[in-house]
């Protein structure tokens, strides 16, 4: 089965290090919607058009969101006139989270517009992971293996890492928070982060993901009580105690598919070395 069939891709462009690989820009060109954090939009429009794809990306359906502290007043006016500006002054969340919330609102509206193809109800704003959260296995494409067979959505975070280590760590950690959203747990929406160097995605329960053999695999969790039994990794994770970030990093896949068995529903982030075929 082609896991990419019937997927509506959304790109969220953060104000970190923009990718250098042409394949990633080519992927953005195929997305249904591009959501820019406000600072990212300012930098993107001013950046060198290395691959001649900037105008094509800017011609896609687009939303610019954030607290608008990084965008010039004349640009605000232009974007507001086009109807693509969505200011969010909330100082308790960062611009990546504002963009994620904007993406979920857009998905809710899109589901309402296409009820004959949506396999799940419109996503709500629930963020907590309940004790009975279902297993949502993934593959390297970021598509849950239990995703509905009909139309579904994938949110791709690009430009979320690089330039500042504090933003990088925070943004990657937030992926695990977003995985608690009902629409993500139900498999209607999947999440992944893309950079020149890695693909990252969250897991909330036991499952597996396709990645190919010989792939660099790292696993992170903030849950010191979690126990993970792995299959398909060169070094077993069963005895890992997640008391610091490094403890399940720098592993390698020994099988085409890697399985992780959780001792209980929790928050995990998996990173794989980047391969263009994942796009």
What does the model show?
With 279 residues, this protein is an alpha/beta fold. Helices cover 24% and strands 24% of the residues. The chain has helices spanning 22-28, 38-46, 54-58, 73-82, 95-113, 165-178, 182-185, and strands spanning 7-13, 33-37, 62-66, 85-87, 152-158, 189-194, 198-203, 207-210, 216-220, 228-231, 251-252, 257-262, 268-273. The longest helix is centred in the middle third of the chain and has 19 residues, at 95-113. The model is unreliable at 117-137 (pLDDT under 50).
Overall geometry comes to globular
Mean pLDDT: 89
CATH fold naming of the domain at 7-197: Rossmann fold
Number of helices: 7
Strand order of the largest sheet: 4-3-2-1-5-6-7-13-9-11
CATH homolog superfamily of the domain at 7-197: Thiamin pyrophosphokinase, catalytic domain
The termini sit apart by 16 Å
Instruction: Specify the biggest β-sheet.
Output: 10 strands, mixed
Q: Beta-sheet strand percentage? A: 15-25%
Radius of gyration: 18 Å
> Could you state the order of secondary-structure elements as H and E?
EHEHHEHEHEHHEEEEEEEE
Instruction: Return the structural class.
Output: alpha/beta
CATH architecture of the domain at 7-197: 3-Layer(aba) Sandwich
Q: How many E strands?
A: 13
Low-confidence stretches: 117-137
Keywords:
globular, 13 strands, 7 helices, alpha/beta, 279 residues
Ordered list of secondary-structure elements with their pairings:
Layout: E1 7-13, H1 22-28, E2 33-37, H2 38-46, H3 54-58, E3 62-66, H4 73-82, E4 85-87, H5 95-113, E5 152-158, H6 165-178, H7 182-185, E6 189-194, E7 198-203, E8 207-210, E9 216-220, E10 228-231, E11 251-252, E12 257-262, E13 268-273
């Amino acid at each position: 089965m082609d896991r990419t069939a019937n997927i509506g891709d959304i790109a969220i462009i953060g104000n970190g290090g923009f990718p250098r690989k042409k394949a990633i820009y080519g992927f953005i060109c195929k997305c249904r919607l591009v959501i820019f954090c406000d600072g990212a939009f300012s930098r993107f429009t001013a950046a060198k058009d290395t691959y001649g794809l900037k105008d094509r990306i800017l011609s896609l359906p687009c939303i610019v969101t954030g607290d608008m502290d990084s965008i010039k007043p004349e640009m605000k006016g232009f974007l507001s006139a086009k109807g693509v500006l969505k200011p969010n002054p909330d100082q308790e969340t960062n611009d990546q989270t504002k963009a994620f919330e904007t993406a979920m609102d857009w998905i809710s509206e899109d589901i309402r517009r296409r009820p004959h193809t949506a396999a799940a109800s419109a996503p709500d704003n629930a963020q907590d992971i309940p004790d009975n959260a279902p297993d949502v296995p993934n593959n390297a494409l970021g598509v849950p293996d239990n995703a509905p067979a009909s139309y579904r959505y994938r949110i791709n975070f690009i430009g979320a890492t690089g330039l500042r280590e504090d933003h990088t760590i925070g943004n990657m950690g937030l992926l695990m928070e977003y995985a608690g959203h009902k629409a993500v747990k139900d498999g209607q929406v999947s999440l992944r982060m893309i950079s020149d160097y890695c693909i990252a995605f969250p897991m909330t329960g036991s499952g597996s993901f396709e990645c190919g053999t010989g792939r660099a695999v790292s696993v992170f969790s903030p849950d010191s009580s979690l126990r993970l039994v792995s299959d398909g990794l060169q070094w077993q994770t069963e005895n890992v105690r997640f008391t610091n970030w490094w403890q399940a990093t720098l592993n390698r896949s020994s099988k085409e598919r890697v399985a992780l068995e959780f001792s209980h529903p929790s928050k995990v982030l998996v990173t794989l070395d980047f391969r263009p075929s994942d796009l």
